Amino acid sequence: MENSIIHTYHISGMGCGGCVATVKNKLSAAPGVKSVTVDLAKKQAKITSSEELKAETLQDALSNSGYTIEELRAPIAL
Questions:
Q1: What is the pTM of this model?
Q2: SS3 for the chain, per residue?
Q3: Domains of the chain
């Protein structure tokens, strides 16, 4: 069974449901990402991955979109 790691990030720049969809789609395309949930009210994203993710990699995935990402908590291994 493959291990999973949950990462929690703050996303700056989101203001509507369209923003949530854009962030989710862009982050889902990043290498190693298995799933993404985005909470507009909290301006947070929870990302489940198969490996450790670097914030720089995720910021690259969001490049040219106007959103910024910052890790909130240390990753949790499942």
A1: 0.89
A2: CCCCEEEEEEEECCCCHHHHHHHHHHHHCCCCEEEEEEECCCCEEEEEECCCCCHHHHHHHCCCCCCEEEEEEEEEEC
A3: 5-77 (3.30.70.100)
